[in-house]
Amino acid sequence: MCAGVCFVSCSILRASFLKYFFLNFYIILSLFADLLRQFVLRFYGLDSPEYGYAYYYTDCLLTVALFVAVISLASRVFGELNLGRYIRLVAVLLLLGTTAFSYAVVAQSAHRLATMFAFELSQNLYFVGLVLTYLLWGAILKLQESRTRVVQMVLSLGLYFSAYAGSFALANLAPKYVIVQYLGPILGCFLPISWALTIMRHSEDSRLTTARLVAVPR
Amino acid sequence: MMAAFILAFSLLTLLMFFVSYCRSLTASSLHTSISEDVRDVTGIKVRAAGRDYARVIQILQLCPDRPEDRSGLQIVGAYYSFLNLLEQGLAKISPAVRAWAEEERAGCAHFAAVALGRRIALNREMLAQQVDL
Asked: Is A111 part of a structural domain of the chain?
């Protein structure tokens, strides 16, 4: 939570709140989601259906917000090619397609449709976001994007998505280890911290050489 | 089986993004040349080499801390340790990997040297302020 407050404060201090509005929106939403979950947990308990609804619906909302944040970075990268409008159109189509697909998957289980749908949509949209981030990174290298802030924010997203996917896989492979359960919350802090560092460390005009970023030299 | 595949793939992409993220940090300091003060103190002649990193960090620790540099130095420090591991392991088999790792270690040393330059400048500023008082 502190990390989220730190990122939003840094954005406001560096006059970048509106420039990176959707990233800030995601972080603010995650702060509210945390508060709501805490509130429901305290009043209804961990095993209550209310907590289940609150958890899965806020998670779904956060995944949609993260998807929008990825798209906002993509439209920045492609903005100079005047492709921003097409990116937004593709994003809407992807979102609608994922929603329809998720609905089709859970339509059979009518008795638990609401929670199952939220869970399925969240999971599928997370996967779409992950693939989009990898594609975005490829586009950054191809288009030789040099804005330090955009590059580092996309790299942070890539690190976050990769680490999160890894922690999920690890939780499936080794569920008995307690440390695995703490990986998710630890990773949750990473994104706001790394974004805050990027905002604080670099100005909007800061540039870097994209050729230096390729992990394996060509 | 599927979970193992996802784990392997995500570790691979994590490594790729980690290397790129660290390179983006070191690349941001490449536009800044190493100051004369740093050259005098560290003995770096023309270009920082990988082996200079440890010495630069030792001197950095003697200077007053700049909170803005702390996180960057920690991440680059972790990257330097990773490169050292790579050099001790995989690089023994492949000379290309060794050359690449050495180049990267030099980038880390340059990053640290630029940070040292900023700290020395801050130190001078603080001293000048004290003299004014």
From this structure: yes
